[in-house]
Structure formats: structure tokens, C-alpha cells
Specification:
- The protein is of the alpha+beta class and 459 residues long.
- It has three domains: 1-72 and 262-459; 73-102 and 218-261, no CATH class; 107-213, Sandwich (Immunoglobulin-like), CATH 2.60.40.
- Helices cover 44% and strands 20% of the residues.
- The chain contains ten helices and 19 strands.
- The protein is flat and about 145 Å long.
């Protein structure tokens, strides 16, 4: 029997080409399985998109569900002078603020030396950094023998808790070590050093004196009360409010800082709720779409999972929240449209936010013993998004199971196809050998007949 590599040589037939055609024909049996696998993979991907959109909607629901949202305060009116932030301890109020001085860090420039890279410390020692405040301890920095001004700078900057940052300046007559306090305020200001003693004998010909610029505290008035601060971040001057000072005010021209209910945050939360639901609705519409002209359908067209999600959410959103002053979404300015989307009436919401915040909070966040609209939606989403028993998770698990079974079926079918092809190959080999033998016999007989004819012709 001829080998695979010489299949067809014995017969002169294109048995390899025929074998390839038979293989292709057999492998067509795999195409339906491939198509079904791709369909399941597309369904898993589409369910993932649905899950992501539902999770994003749930995030906006969680914001509305938080009762503290409807009690939050914000500060306004600081202008260019200051910015303000509030925490839970803040109380609504109006404050007159005058800023007469900003906090500044103190600086010190040492005596001059001739060059920054020449040794100026003979035997080494300690550089003492003394600060203005009596409660601020002095700092000692170890300086090695033969250190240059650059080495001293580096040693200071490497010292943890030095209280200053060091650099080198050239004032036109020599080089000075410039020290800048890392904190603002009078007490944290660098006041003096023993630099001249440490580098004795190595100062410039005209060393001059140390130059200091004192640190300053911030000074302001709140409702006529004088307040000082070592930093421009002023805390506790107004309970629950942190002021960040940026500029001073003109004389006798205070600004008015207001701490009041943060209506903007509530508006944004409600608007975010509507937008994220509509985004979810748009995602579901895309996944279940069908184009009659092209015949193209979305990955989840006709899928029970999407219909169930949509139905359950519509049921919750169109339902009421009994017991409170506000009972339905339409009363807060949100209406369910015919296409299933939500529409927000900003003016209607504004009326509730500005004049009925407590009722709005009770409607969305609920009250003691009752669940608000946000809580009801969150519960519905939670059941459907549960990682183990949720509707979406079970749908994904089912699709993954079908995909796995299709993979096993594909493997079995592929093995069967290869066995069939190998059977064809063996049969073709036998055919090739048989035709080769027949060709040899035919050639032999032809030769014998030719020889016999030749012999008869001579006789």
C-alpha cells in the first residue's frame, strides 16, 4: 500500500485533493455547533452589558437611598477670598468674614561663602536650627568634616523633621544657604542658626549678616470676633466648617459666607437616578432590537431575562410609597413615559428641593419602619443582581453551561470527522495500490501481447 505522502502516485489520480474535499465536507457538520457557540458567547457578553448597566443604575439608587443626602449642608459666598467645606457637625447660618492677613512661612538666609562647592567645614559638627516659638524644639543636623555648602544643604533636606527646606541662593556677592520653614505661622518660623560658628574662618570676605523674614499667622474676623491661625486652613472657628484662606479682604469690606442646605447635591442625585435608568433602558433596547430591513437582531432579542428585568423595574417605579406626604415619582417631577423612559421636570423637583426637603428625603430614603422608593428599587435590583441566585447570574450560568456542552459536542464531532477522514485515507490507499497493481498487470500483458505479435509476424 502506498504511503500518505505518495497517495495517488500508483493510480495517477488526485486522491489527496479528493481527500481534502471529503474532509471539508465532513467538517461542515461542525459549523452548526460553531454558530451556536458564537451565539452563546454573544449572549453571555450581552448579559454582561445588561448586568453592568443595572449595577450603574443601582449606584445612583444607593445615593438617593442615603438619608444623610437630604440633610447635607454646603458653604457658599467665599468668592476669591476663601473656599469652605463643611462636615456633619456644621449648622446652617450666615457669617461675616474679614481676612486681614494670610499665614506665611518664615525664612532665613545665612552669611555668605565664596563658592557652593568648596569645603567650608573643617572639623565637622552640628548645625543648630532654632525656631521662633518657645514650644518648637530646636533641630540639630550632623554636618561632616570638609562639607561644602551643597553638602550642608543636602544634609538638612535629608534630616527627617528638620522643619525647614534648604536651597542655595547667589545674591551677587556670594552664596547663602536659604532656609524656608515647612510650616506657616509665627512659632514655626526659622529664627537663627549657628552657621557662622560651624564654618568659622571660611566665610566670604564680606559675609554680611543672616537675613530673616519672620513667619506670620493668619488674622481674620468672623462676625466681629478676632481669630488667628498658624495656617491658612482655619478649622473650628465655625463649627463643622473648614476655611481655606486665599486672599485678604479690603478694609471694612467683609464677605458673607452662608452655610445652608445643599440643594444642588440632591438635584444632581435625582438627575443621576433618571439618567442612569434611561441609560439602562437604552442598553436593554439595543440588546433586544430588531432591524426588519436587514434582519439583524440584538443579542438578547426575545430574551426572557430582559423582559423580566424591565417588567420588575417598571412595576416598582410605577408603584407608590404609602404613608408619606409624597407618594409617587410624578409628585417629585419624574414621569414614566410611554417608551418606558423617565423624564425629569426640573421645576417641579426644584419646588420640592427648596421647600419640602424632609418629605423628599422620606419619599426616596424612607423613614423609620418604612422603605422609600430608592430602597424598593434597590431591593428589586439586589434580587436580580444577586451573584448566586439572581436572575442575571442564573441566565449567564445557563449560557455558560450550554457553551460548555457545545464545546464537548464539538470535540466529539471533530474526533468523529477525523476518524472518518482516516478511514477514507486508508481506503484510498488500498484503491491506489490496487490500481497500481492493475496498471502493472496491464502493462505486463501488453508487453506479452506485443512480443507474441512480433513473433507471429516473423513466422
Amino acid at each position: 500500500m502506498a504511503s500518505i505522502s505518495s497517495l495517488g502516485i500508483g493510480s495517477g489520480l488526485d486522491l489527496n485533493g479528493l481527500l481534502d474535499q471529503l474532509r471539508d465536507a465532513e467538517r461542515e457538520k461542525l459549523e452548526p455547533i460553531v454558530a451556536q457557540s458564537e451565539q452563546q458567547q454573544a449572549r453571555i457578553s450581552a448579559l454582561g452589558k445588561l448586568q453592568s448597566a443595572m449595577t450603574q443604575f443601582d449606584d445612583s439608587v444607593e445615593t438617593l437611598k442615603d438619608a444623610s443626602l437630604y440633610e447635607s449642608l454646603s458653604a457658599s459666598g467665599g468668592g476669591d477670598t476663601l473656599s469652605a467645606s463643611v462636615d456633619a457637625a456644621a449648622q446652617p447660618g450666615s457669617y461675616s468674614v474679614e481676612v486681614s492677613n494670610l499665614a506665611k512661612a518664615g525664612t532665613l538666609a545665612t552669611q555668605r561663602v565664596d563658592a557652593p562647592d568648596e569645603a567650608i567645614v573643617d572639623a565637622g559638627g552640628k548645625l543648630n536650627l532654632n525656631f521662633k516659638g518657645g514650644d518648637v524644639p530646636a533641630v540639630e543636623v550632623d554636618i561632616a568634616a570638609d562639607s561644602t555648602l551643597e553638602d550642608i544643604r543636602d544634609a538638612i533636606n535629608a534630616k527627617e523633621g528638620a522643619g525647614v527646606s534648604a536651597s542655595i541662593v547667589n545674591d551677587g556677592e556670594g552664596y547663602r544657604l536659604a532656609l524656608n520653614s515647612t510650616e506657616t505661622g509665627v512659632d514655626a518660623a526659622i529664627d537663627s542658626t549657628n552657621f557662622s560658628t560651624l564654618v568659622a574662618g571660611n566665610l566670604a570676605a564680606n559675609p554680611d549678616n543672616q537675613i530673616t523674614q519672620p513667619g506670620e499667622d493668619a488674622a481674620l474676623k468672623i462676625n466681629g470676633i478676632d481669630i488667628t491661625s498658624t495656617t491658612n486652613e482655619v478649622t473650628e472657628a465655625i463649627q463643622g466648617v473648614t476655611l481655606n484662606l486665599k486672599e485678604t479682604t479690603a478694609a471694612d469690606s467683609p464677605i458673607t459666607l452662608k452655610v445652608e442646605q445643599d440643594t444642588l447635591k440632591v438635584r444632581e442625585a435625582v438627575s443621576g437616578f433618571v439618567k442612569s435608568y434611561n441609560a439602562l433602558k437604552d442598553t436593554m433596547g439595543t440588546l433586544t432590537s430588531y432591524n426588519s430591513e436587514t434582519g439583524q437582531a440584538g443579542e438578547l432579542n426575545g430574551d426572557r431575562t430582559v423582559r423580566t428585568v424591565e417588567s420588575r423595574l417598571r412595576s416598582v417605579l410605577s408603584g407608590g410609597v404609602p404613608g408619606g406626604e409624597l407618594n409617587t415619582l410624578s409628585e417629585v417631577g419624574i414621569t414614566l413615559q410611554r417608551d418606558g423612559t423617565l423624564e425629569l421636570d426640573e421645576d417641579a423637583l426644584g419646588e420640592q428641593v427648596s421647600g419640602n426637603m424632609a418629605a423628599l428625603g422620606e419619599f426616596f430614603a424612607g423613614s423609620e419602619g418604612s422603605t422609600g422608593m430608592a430602597g424598593r428599587v434597590d431591593e428589586a435590583l439586589g434580587r436580580m443582581l444577586d451573584e448566586e441566585s439572581g436572575l442575571v447570574a442564573r441566565s449567564i450560568e445557563g449560557a455558560e453551561g450550554r457553551l460548555e456542552r457545545l464545546g464537548e459536542r464539538y470535540t466529539r464531532m471533530e474526533t468523529s470527522v477525523e476518524r472518518t477522514v482516516e478511514r477514507y485515507r486508508a481506503q484510498f490507499g488500498q484503491l491506489d495500490a490496487m490500481i497500481a497493481n492493475m496498471n502493472q498487470t496491464s502493462s505486463y500483458l501488453t508487453q506479452q501481447f506485443d512480443a507474441l505479435d512480433a513473433q507471429l509476424g516473423r513466422d
